Amino acid sequence: MRKAGRLIVFEGPDGSGKSTLSRRLVAALRKSGKSCVHLAFPGNERGTLGHLVYRLHHKPTEFGIARPNPASLQLLHLAAHIEAINKKILPALKKGHWVILDRYWWSLWVYGRVGGIAPEVIVQMIEIEKDYWGDISPLVFLIVRKNKLSSLGKKLLKEYTELAAIEGQVSPVHIIDNSKTIENTMQNLKNIVEAVPNVSAGVSRGKASIKVSPLGPAVPTVVYDTYWRFAAERQSIFFKRLKSEPQPWTNDPILSEFKFTNAYRASDRVSQYLIKNVIYSGEQTFEEVFFRTILFKFFNRIETWELLEKKIGEIKFKGFSIEKYNRVLSEAMQSGSRVYSPAYIMPSGGPNSPWPRKHSMHLQLLQRMMREDLPAQIADTKYMSEGFELLRGYPTIGDFLAYQYITDLNYSAFLKYSEMEFTIPGPGAKDGIRKCFSNLGGLTEAEIIQLVAKRQEMEFARLGLDFKSLWGRPLQLIDCQNLFCEVDKYSRVKHPEFSGNTGRTRIKQKFSPTKEPVRFWYPPKWGINEKIASEV
User: Fold this and answer.
1) What residues contact 404, with CB distance under 8 A and at least 6 apart?
2) 13/151 same-domain check
3) What is residue 174's three-state secondary structure?
4) Is 102 helix (H, G, I), strand (E, B) or coil?
5) What average pLDDT does this structure show over 89-118?
6) Residue 1 has pLDDT above 50, yes or no
7) What integer best gives the mean pLDDT of the chain?
8) What is the mean pLDDT of residues 261-282?
9) Do 389 and 431 have their domain in common?
10) Strands 98-102 vs 36-40: parallel, antiparallel or unpaired
11) For residues 124 and 278, which has the higher predicted lDDT (pLDDT)?
């Protein structure tokens, strides 16, 4: 095969300047001796399907159409793309020309999403187009101009930016800020073009992947698809239980027999109790909220919290007595009661610990946090990672516990961290990730979780799954982390051929529905509590 040319794509919202920049780059490349072909999707060259689609898009009344349906319009764009790929782009690349393309399949996704087309419909369109692209991987420039954006422009920019983060895992993608002079932007473009190797080799038509974009460098296994199917089915069960529908809530025999957490961490029984009865019940200063939250989380057991309330009264830092709390917990243990939840492995401080009991150590640790004014230090932070580091600095609190604790504190009204900032995978999540991927391709487990969270809508659409979000709230990093842990357990039965580091082969806990239904209530700042009543 003759040496293939290069494909360079310009993408971005209308008004970003991408068309001007693509023309300027073509002129610069031709001046340097390169053979270039400049094309645009859908195209405005007379005698082409793209020209008709362009006119229909911008002047539908000329055709007697008042307002085309968004899905129909994108299908017409798809048809124009395919004609241009077959008749112009592939032949030019095979002849060794450089093709500079204004718009790509990215526009189908972004404008379709903003236009309200169902994700699964757009995915099907994209898969058809990708089948015609074969294995071509372009150099993509996402042109952005953030100043003076309209409300539509902001929506488009958000979709483009999220897509760029995903596609940047598998192709060279560069976000170019076009807010400065065009000369400055052009110099930046030319530097990148010269530095990036030819990425368009292999223009033979091939069968496209069934995914919207590959996960590479990570290599998924069959368990990866199970991850998404588990999330969708577990969330379906959640809504059926919420509406008090009669059993069975699922046809999945594994989900029917064994106990699994919800797709959303905040929907689980203990988290719900923490939010309603601990964080938002009692004195609403961050000092008191912090004290109650960390005390609860050290034990993470509803029965322990209610025992303390029964014996001591209102749980408050003001008047906190280690001796009094220690006595209640010690007596409970002497009577054979459990005070710690088995959900987390709570370190005891080691054989040299000065405290005879683990709960005594935790009471002392909580008092130290309060004396060192940790609540005020955390309240002054802007990012979850900063609060995490402050908690991580205390004895026996490792990465995973610090991440869990800062997530719980963030349920309060006092912290406004983004849950999409960073994540810490626990041991169970790491095992789940190892089952979902045969090779991480150099990515860390945390990077895998971030990648998965960004791809959630695409992956549900790819598999044709009807995932009903938490009243518009997508899965956050903490939720995706938890789901890997649950899929680790689920796959012990579903995919026994995949083993994790723990070597566990069975699921211990059987499912048993609670006698009293949980009345779900979430942090008010999420803005979803008012939607629950209508759902029920």
Assistant:
1) 297, 344
2) yes
3) strand
4) strand
5) 93
6) no
7) 89
8) 97
9) no
10) parallel
11) 278
Distance, in Å, from the CA atom of 262 to the CA atom of 254, rounded to the nearest integer, reads: 14
State whether 257 and 165 are in the same domain: no
Three-class SS state of 88: helix
Furthest C-alpha separation in the chain:
88
Do 398 and 438 fall within a single domain?
no
Residue among 410, 382, 384, 379 nearest 526 (CA): 410
pLDDT tens-digit readout, 389-412: 999 999 999 999 999 999 999 999
Unique residue bearing structure tokens 């089915």: 233
Q: What's the CA gap between 91 and 138, in Å, rounded? A: 16
Based on the fold, state whether residues 162 and 60 are members of the same structural domain.
yes
pLDDT of residue 469: 94
Cα atoms found within 13 Å of the Cα of residue 186, Cβ hemisphere only = 14
Q: Are residues 344 and 368 in the same domain?
A: yes
66 and 167 assigned to the same domain = yes
Cα-to-chain-centroid distance, residue 11: 23
CA distance 483 to 372: 35
Q: What crossing angle do the helices spanning 358-371 and 322-334 adopt, rounded to 10°?
A: 160
211 within domain boundaries: no
Query: How does residue 203 score in pLDDT terms, banded at 50, 70 and 90?
Result: very low
Edge-first strand listing for the sheet containing 36-40: 36-40, 98-102, 7-11, 139-144, 173-177
Q: How far is CA 290 from the centre of its chain?
A: 27
Give the tens place of pLDDT for each residue, 5-42. Answer: 899 999 999 889 999 999 999 999 999 999 999 999 99
Average pLDDT of the segment spanning 515-534: 86
Q: Which residues pair with 393 in a beta bridge?
A: none
Radius of gyration of the chain (CA): 28
Is the pLDDT confidence value at 209 over 50? no
Residue 513, token pair as written in the block = 């529905």
Q: How far is CA 41 from the centre of its chain?
A: 30
